[in-house]
Amino acid sequence: MPKLPIVQVAAALSPLLCPTAAMAQLVFQPPDLRAPAVRQASPGVCTIGSGRQLTAVLPETNVGVTLQANPQLSIYVPRNNAQYGQLQVYEEGSDSALLTTAIDLPPSVAPGDFQYGPALTAVTLDDIELVPGIPYRWTITLVCNDSDRTSDVAVSGLVLRAGSDYIDRLEPNVQAALTMLSDLSVADQLSTYAEAGVWHELIANLTALAERDPSYAAMLANILTLQGLEAIADAP
Description:
By secondary structure, this protein is α+β, with helices and mostly antiparallel strands. The chain has one domain: Immunoglobulins (Immunoglobulin-like), CATH 2.60.40. Helices cover 20% and strands 23% of the residues. The chain contains 5 helices and 9 strands. It has a 9-stranded mixed beta sheet, covered by helices on one side. Strand 5 (84-91) and strand 6 (99-104) form a beta hairpin. Helix 2 (172-178) crosses helix 3 and helix 4 (199-210) packs antiparallel against helix 5 (214-226). The longest helix is centred in the C-terminal third of the chain and has 13 residues, at 214-226. The radius of gyration is 17 Å and the shape is globular. It starts with a strand and ends in a 10-residue tail after the last helix.
């Protein structure tokens, strides 16, 4: 089974600008989309004693909107001793996986009895191109015991690549900003993603910026907290 590496979130951004006071109040505006999903996994035999649990980094609606054909799906990987990680992607409503692939888990960054984690990381959908307007369900699993898959630890969510139907419902100024993102400042890029309800790019960019500037780390923590993810808001 081919492996799709989990990578630290990265983004191509214009030169860094210090966050303004207004940017500190950046608020994500989720679109009117909602779906059942599992944002936080129950403890499993390979995560017992790890503290926080495997978490899908998604808004409270469980649906993440993206502008990209190959977005990054952000997850929090706790300390664990899984045999491997697995990603599956389905068209919503289908039981037939479009993609099933193993993923590398981030190595442990702390001493102790765990082989992997903890880390706020991302997996990029390199092996599949999302079609605009079609919702896709994704599941990321820590396989604790390949011989007994009942012990799996899994989270799930939906990702939607914004098509014209979605973008046409946005405010005209937001639509205009989306057409010129590469020309915008960092602050305006982030504001545009937040106002447009574009979750995956917002989180990817904030995570990349947070690695270099604690002001953005605080901004990311605030966004996560407002979406009910306060348990991982200060995750490394």
